[in-house]
Specification:
Purple Acid Phosphatase, chain A, domain 2; binds 2-acetamido-2-deoxy-beta-D-glucopyranose; alpha/beta; Acid_PPase; 8-stranded mixed β-sheet; metal ion binding; acid phosphatase activity; Metallo-depent_PP-like; 6-stranded mixed β-sheet; about 325 residues
């Protein structure tokens, strides 16, 4: 007797389940990775950007000094702010540029750590899916490149964001170059989902330090200046969630700016190879703490309540350094 009702119930249950699966908004969040801190609870890493030129334009000199400083600080990993391979990213997973510009350049022992890479606009001119392909880890196990992700390391949370799709000119004037927008279109949905995911990941974060990494500048007096799209769409989110540091590449220089409207420190590490553009812009609202038009990189040493940031040139000389102290983050 119960047969019909059981049957009807299971059908309606299936229909409800089917409806939910189809029509609920997709709530997949940013991919999350973990990296352990050192035994003493601290963490140190290097940041390099705009580098892959087969050793040319002082890339090998920068790599050598990264090896030395990396050893001294016994770094835990390396962060790349993008434009990993010039001029046009990788052509495929077999592109020899991967070895010639990465594997055979950053050969120092201290650099045989995890590399966390994001994509720059030049990477989007090649086969993006090649750089994202885990197969590259068989060629060099250090390699990890994702579009946007969260990296948790107890005292700090990093939010890596894919900034190239924000920039209108790559879409409005694509005649100069072709871009590989697979996985990005429709653009509006891609960007609104990324902003929403960034906002909720920052809101949920309980780490004492919050560091956001993207390829494009937010504040810069270098060649590209501020990236208007990021100032409008991303900066308010970083300010709302009290992000400590935004690190980018794109401008081929080393730079430190701070802001009058928040505590965010804006760091540019885009000196991995070709530099010396020589066209420095005018300073707007924000405060310029340091600008160097040549090649180099930066290091970050983090403890629970202290951060130490140092910029180096191709001779390993310290060009600029500063410390940040802050109390423990409270969720109340
Ligand atoms: C390499 O670095 C040196 C020292 O900063 C600089 O004088 C030289 O112009 C650089 N070479 C290139 C090709 O940028
Ligand atoms: C930052 O702190 C270190 C000690 O950890 C100190 O040696 C260094 O001079 C400080 N730098 C600045 C610019 O205050």
């Amino acid at each position: 007797m119960a047969g019909f009702w059981d049957y009807a119930m299971s059908i309606s249950f299936l229909l409800v389940a089917f409806f939910c699966a189809c029509f609920l908004p997709i709530t997949a969040e940013l991919q999350r990775l973990e990296h352990p801190v050192k035994a003493d609870g601290s963490l140190s890493f290097l940041v390099i950007g705009d580098w892959g030129r087969r050793g040319h334009y002082n890339q090998s000199d920068v790599a050598y000094q990264m090896g030395r400083i990396g050893e001294k600080l016994s770094i835990d990993f390396v962060v790349s702010t993008g434009d990993n391979f010039y001029e046009d990213g990788l052509t495929s997973i077999d592109d020899p540029a991967f070895e010639k510009s990465f594997a055979k350049i950053y050969t120092a022992k201290s650099l045989q750590k995890q590399w966390y890479n994001i994509l720059g606009n030049h990477d989007y001119r090649g086969d993006v899916e090649a750089q994202l392909n885990p197969i590259l880890r068989r060629v060099d196990s250090r390699w990890l490149c994702l579009r946007s992700f969260v990296l948790n390391s107890e005292i700090v949370e990093f939010f890596f964001i894919d900034t190239t799709p924000f920039v209108d000119k790559y879409f409005l004037r694509p005649k100069h170059h072709t871009y590989d927008w697979r996985g990005v279109l429709p653009r509006k949905e891609y960007l609104s989902k990324l902003l929403k995911d960034l906002d909720s990941a920052l809101r949920d974060s309980t780490a004492n330090w919050k560091i956001v990494v993207g390829h494009h500048t937010i504040r810069s007096i270098g060649h590209h200046r501020d990236t208007r799209e990021l100032v409008m769409q991303v900066l308010p989110i970083l300010e709302e969630h009290s992000v400590d540091i935004y690190i980018n590449g794109h401008d081929h220089c080393l730079e430190h700016m701070s802001s009058k409207s928040s505590n965010i420190q804006f760091l540019t590490s885009g000196g991995g190879s070709k530099a010396w553009k020589g066209d420095i812009g005018k300073l707007g609202q924000d405060l310029l703490k340091f600008y160097y038009d040549g090649q180099g990189f930066l290091s970050v040493e983090l403890k629970q309540t202290e951060a130490k940031i140092v910029f180096y040139d191709i001779f390993g000389k310290v060009l600029h350094n500063f410390n940040i102290s802050k109390g423990l983050f409270s969720t109340m």
